[in-house]
Design goal:
Two copies of one chain form a homodimer. With 557 residues, chain A is of the alpha+beta class. In chain A, helix 2 packs antiparallel against helix 5, helix 11 crosses helix 14 and helix 17 runs antiparallel to helix 18. In chain A, strands 12, 13, 14, 15, 16, 17, 18 and 19 form an eight-stranded antiparallel β-sheet that branches. Chains A and B meet through strand 9, helix 10, strand 11, strand 16 and helix 17 of A and strand 9, helix 10, strand 11, strand 16 and helix 17 of B.
């Protein structure tokens, strides 16, 4: 295994050793309490693993013995830590269960195959013995794609790809590389960057997520404008299914009927286990320029992104915060700092230029050859100026880059103080984006007020656009709310339902890059249609007729 | 109907009124005879329709009456011309059958529904009565995707989308538009260009092919570098299946499991009938610059294309002819023209610079904003110069643009003279491209010699690259050969098999943009794998359980 799991929080985000900057910042917590309409924040620490009773493994001894015979004893894990670690993903829904010690869905064993053949043999044992199997990459799903649910079977194992992280081939001539699917982001980039190459796929989970996971949930990295989404960079995949090996794709382009890569992309471990993948590469960019802009309102920021897309400006990332998110980060950055004369002059200047509380910050990233980066930035500067925006320079971009993977860490200290924080995302065409933004934001705000633990309590609902296309963009909502401690799951469900119903009613997709898992399952049929679901069920039946793979995810029964 | 079918050749390519420049050029024919190692070319005219006995329609009167009740008498066609016109596509394989009067596979009726509901009702009648249905767009398939094959049914109808060609919506804000799928290329572009927009999808069949057809065979237009392939510009589709309506996609991007657009793309009428589609648009380019370059050999031309792709140069098209194709076009252009002093000086200059018979011509196209076109052209100029290429100026580009849809017309006059001409295409990664190019070319040459009507006769096998990607490119072979008139189908099959076997053995895809139809069916299982075929069969069963749709195409039984 590449990472010792004990170095990673089993019931929270990231490195155990990560220091919470927030935890000690009392000013932040009192500010947050006021914002949420709460008199004070409660201490709500997570239960330590030692105090939790984990259900005894249901795996019969003879089944366990078969796995041991196949993989060796050290690759059949059923100690408490490994089982708890693999019990769930890292969604808000998962987190409230993990923190309260609800380990009703833990795998009966965690298996660590080292080759595709071993994965195939493992699945064969599962099939013969009637054991459900949950494929596991980095474990960072935020939509409940990893719940160790036995479905209609008596036991369930997690099949972790963590020992399958080899570099198989780097074809610098074709600008492609083949890896085992369990490779983590940093190891993959290290191997490529040593040869002057990059995949450039940097989701917020980059440090802890795997190539196979990126494909299985059809992900998008922060630089998707330049580097593409998983469906753009996937050349081909090797997928182990209960019915055998499926090798898809392998060509720069093809017209040989439906593209089967696209059934693997987004398959979420339900159709098979991705064990190898070939991906498209880029040259490591010679230049990188990330910088901030301030728009007078959300609409003019949206107009800038749309214009950049339609005019083909070579951007790597455009990330527009709405006014709430802009204010949140500004307050967050200023807390406990003395206001200098310079700050006051800046503020006066902004006021005089009409940048009020509706202002929205945008981070733009440009990567590539130096001259191309310069040209793209120049074109974007001209465009933003026309729209009345202010160029804020590189410091904002630098700050964003430094913290690009830190966002999820904010969740744990909030959870320790009776505060919930969740995110959800969608994508929609430009002509419907404004309505969707307002409707979903209002739906989340109303649902938080409705479920708040006391009258007058409220949420902090913010949004940003982080991925854009010629025909539309994503909307990513972050909402912070006072938890209803006597009914947390119900509260989460109410908010989630309100937001998701608003999304599908207004023409948005139920997920832009998080995926479906368990959490979005109720909206799958609305989006795919009943024939669409029939198709997915037919494919499932063709590849996994006994239904052992990842029960309860992706495909509604 | 947008086009009167009588204005289009029922047994050849394009407008009946199109004047064959070649037909009168005796110099060309004697040159060609020599090239093919034939003492003379034979007159082999096609049989006129009037001399061909078309099998009586097998459609029982009561079935016909049901279609008439549904669609009206004028939209149930069974006259000889319409049946013959819709009997087959326009592949070489189709053509030899049509020209010799083999109309054993003609539809028993041609149906012309005008709405999605009518398509659905028509399919319901087919299902109830046990009638096979062949969906028909523009009829330009070159892989046998339109053969009116009843399969295991007693009769077969063609369902033509030619009356479903309406513009449903143009959303200029989102840069998308929705059309009925039967709209032809010119009508689609006219509607868009009136608003300053374009889809930019220009296959060689542009004048006669439809939006639905482009999607159904997963096509690529000549400007695919800028405008993308069908899978890049398809936002969503409405597909009528025997089990109901399937509406796919509809978002700029999504992570809601497998993307069902990709089952529609390449579905070739086997899974359903595409009746509407929403597509991504571009602004009509302000500038367009097409020009020629001459490389000393194929390898340096390939290097230029690869470098342009990897460095992200904003090209619309790069089309590199190999030395045989380059020589063919040069000879073709010079035939019967007097060599001027200027020509001789040009030749001396080329000789002195080392441009010999290995030289390869490349046409580069740049479209977009004027400054972007200038910049891209400059970058490409620098790159080609480094690789020892000669810039030939705009006249070559202009000539290519003028003739961009004329290529297929060359086939008919050749067919009239005992000469066969067929094309096939593949795509492959850069590192394997050289080997594939040589192996396939040699395989075709050998198969032509083997099947030639006399000893010493040979083929003219040329190749070009017309579509390129960061990880590889397409190879498009054109081969001209003396026909074995006493066994034409066997000859075609031998050549096709030799080329296709060489393609799959050397890592190429069996089709880059033509599709599968009947012609590539024997290689589908090699490319998709047996589980891949199982998946396609499962999807087929989910959507068309009786198997009435387009029997014998795409999915091996």
């Amino acid at each position: 295994m590449t990472i010792d799991h004990r170095a990673i929080r089993w019931n929270g985000w990231g490195w155990t050793a990560h220091k919470d900057q927030l935890a000690e910042n009392d000013l932040f917590w009192s500010w947050l309490a006021t914002e949420l309409g709460m008199p004070a924040l409660l201490a709500t620490p997570a239960r330590p693993l030692e105090s939790i009773t984990i259900p005894t493994s249901r795996l019969p001894a003879e089944h366990r013995a078969r796995f041991v015979a196949l993989l060796g004893a050290e690759r059949v894990r059923d100690d408490a830590y490994e089982r708890a670690y693999h019990a769930l993903g890292r969604s808000y829904h998962d987190l409230i269960r993990l923190r309260t010690g609800d380990l009703s869905t833990v795998p009966d064993a965690v298996l660590l195959p080292r080759t595709s053949d071993e994965v195939q043999a493992t699945l064969a044992v599962c099939g013969e013995c009637g054991i459900a199997a949950v494929p596991y990459g980095g474990g960072t799903s935020v939509v409940g794609a990893l719940t160790a649910d036995p479905g209609r079977f008596k036991s369930v194992v997690t099949i972790s790809l963590s020992e399958m992280d080899r570099v198989i081939d780097i074809d610098a001539q074709s600008m492609t590389a083949t890896f085992e699917a369990g490779i983590l982001g940093p190891a993959l980039e290290k191997a490529l960057q040593a040869k002057g190459l990059t995949l450039g796929h940097h989701p917020q989970s980059f440090e802890f997520s795997t190539l196979g996971g990126w494909i299985a949930h059809r992900g998008a990295g922060q630089g998707s404008n330049r580097y593409g989404r998983a469906e753009d960079w996937l050349v081909g995949a090797k997928v182990i299914t209960p019915r055998g090996v499926l090798q898809t794709g392998g060509f720069p382009a093809s017209a040989t009927g439906p593209r089967l890569n696209d059934l693997v992309l987004g398959s979420e471990g339900v159709l098979g286990i991705i064990t190898e993948a070939t991906v498209r590469l880029h040259a490591l960019p010679a230049a990188s320029d990330y910088r901030g802009y301030l728009f007078k309102d959300f609409a003019s920021g949206v107009a800038a992104i749309r214009s950049a897309m339609i005019n083909g400006i070579d951007v790597t990332m455009l990330r527009l915060s709405d006014s709430i998110e802009t204010k949140f980060y500004r307050t967050f950055g200023a807390l406990g700092k003395k206001r200098t004369v310079r700050d006051r002059i800046s503020q006066l200047y902004l006021d005089s230029r009409g940048f009020d509380e509706k202002s929205c910050a945008l981070i733009a990233g440009f990567e590539g050859e130096s001259s191309a980066v310069k040209e793209a930035r120049h074109r974007f500067d001209v465009l933003t100026k026309k729209l009345g925006a202010l160029a804020l320079g590189e410091s904002q971009g630098k700050r964003w880059k430094e913290g690009r993977f830190h966002g999820p860490y904010l969740r744990d200290p909030m959870m320790d103080r009776g505060v919930g924080v969740d995110t959800l995302e969608t994508a929609i065409s430009w002509s419907k984006l404004d309505t969707l933004y307002i409707t979903v934001r209002d739906a989340i705000e109303a649902a938080i007020r409705e479920t708040a633990p006391r009258a007058g309590a409220r949420g902090l609902v913010s949004c940003h656009i982080s991925h854009s296309y010629t025909d539309g963009a994503s909307l990513y909502f972050t909402y912070i709310f006072p938890r209803a401690l006597d009914g947390e799951l119900a509260q989460w469900r109410t908010i989630k339902r309100a937001a998701s119903d608003a999304i599908v009613k207004n023409g948005g997709t139920i997920s832009h890059h998080h995926g479906i898992g368990e959490d979005h399952l109720p909206w799958m049929a609305v989006e795919k249609g009943s024939l669409g679901i029939d198709i997915l069920r037919a494919v499932k039946m063709a590849l996994d007729p006994k239904g052992i793979l990842n029960p309860g995810k992706l495909i509604p029964l």
